[in-house]
């Protein structure tokens, strides 16, 4: 009887040792094939429990989180499995140093870098601000900007109270480069601080402004000499010894592209066959299309050899 009990006890002990050894082998194999490792991830930093009507600044976009887990668990793990956040509960307006929290369901969080962040909390405010248009580029040389019509002409700017105090203006850039006629564009309004810096930490509503821009023709003036021209011939024995124009320069107006190319003004030709003596002849100025002048005619004084000193007006 005693021998039989001892035999059974030996069998159970052998079985226990087999299971124990198997477990040890499994643990050994797993530790060799799938060991516990550490890995670092760049994780977006979230803000939690911020009081209504408040806004927070200087929150880093991401923090570094070092976690520990099995090699297989960390190998293909998405970053979303790690959650990093700062708890902003019951914080008042001002600067605060807040600890960064991190959670990891598949293992342990070893380290967060930085461990704390300096944040600024302010009241959220809004204000109504007029919108202006600012010209970018230059239109066609013959045109200038006449006016802008903005729809809407005012926007609501929302942000921290201290930032709204620094707001200088809200504008939309309007590119008129090479334009020669009225046009309409839709532009995003931009906020600028009093120090001239862009304010990307405020919200503008609406986010788009319709801008209708009208152009007008530019008028340029110039005072140019006139050039005498002749037609036909004098009677035999006569010769023009001098010819003067009064006035010898005339002021004209027109678009820059036309005026800048004018060096002198042509006159209708003087008909010499009608001239037999000294004469003062009114002559019409030939004006290019789109050009106007301070006068339509000039007087041409002709001195003719062989003729008397008496003048004839024609």
UniProtKB/TrEMBL annotation:
This is YbbR domain-containing protein. The chain crosses the membrane at residues 12-29. InterPro entries: c-di-AMP_regulator, YbbR. It comes from the Bacteria. Keywords: Membrane, Transmembrane, Transmembrane helix.
């Amino acid at each position: 009887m005693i021998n039989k009990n001892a035999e059974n006890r030996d069998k159970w002990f052998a079985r226990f040792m087999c299971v124990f050894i198997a477990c040890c082998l499994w643990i050994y194999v797993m530790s060799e094939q799938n060991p516990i490792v550490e890995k670092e991830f760049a994780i977006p930093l979230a803000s939690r429990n911020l009081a209504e009507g408040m806004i927070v600044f200087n929150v880093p976009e991401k923090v570094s989180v070092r976690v520990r887990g099995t090699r297989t668990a960390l190998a293909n793990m998405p970053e979303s499995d790690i959650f990093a956040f700062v708890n902003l509960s019951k914080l008042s307006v001002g600067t605060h140093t807040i600890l960064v929290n991190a959670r990891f369901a598949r293992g342990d969080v070893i380290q967060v870098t930085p461990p704390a962040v300096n944040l600024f909390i302010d009241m959220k405010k809004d204000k109504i601000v007029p919108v202006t248009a600012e010209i970018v580029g230059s239109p066609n040389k013959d045109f200038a900007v006449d006016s802008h019509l903005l729809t809407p002409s005012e926007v609501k700017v929302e942000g921290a109270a201290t930032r709204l105090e620094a707001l200088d203006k809200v504008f939309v850039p309007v590119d008129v480069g090479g334009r020669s006629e009225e046009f309409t564009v839709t532009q995003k309004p931009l906020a600028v601080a009093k120090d001239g810096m862009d304010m990307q930490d405020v919200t503008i509503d609406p986010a788009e402004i319709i801008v209708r821009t009208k152009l007008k023709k530019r008028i340029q003036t110039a005072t140019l000499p006139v050039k005498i021209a002749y037609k036909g011939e004098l009677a035999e024995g006569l010769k023009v010894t001098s010819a003067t124009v009064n006035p010898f320069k005339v002021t004209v107006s027109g678009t820059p592209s036309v005026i800048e190319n004018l060096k002198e003004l042509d006159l209708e030709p003087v008909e010499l066959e009608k001239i037999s003596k000294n004469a003062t002849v009114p002559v019409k100025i030939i004006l290019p299309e789109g050009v106007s002048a301070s006068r339509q005619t000039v007087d041409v004084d002709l001195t003719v050899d062989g003729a008397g000193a008496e003048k004839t007006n024609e």
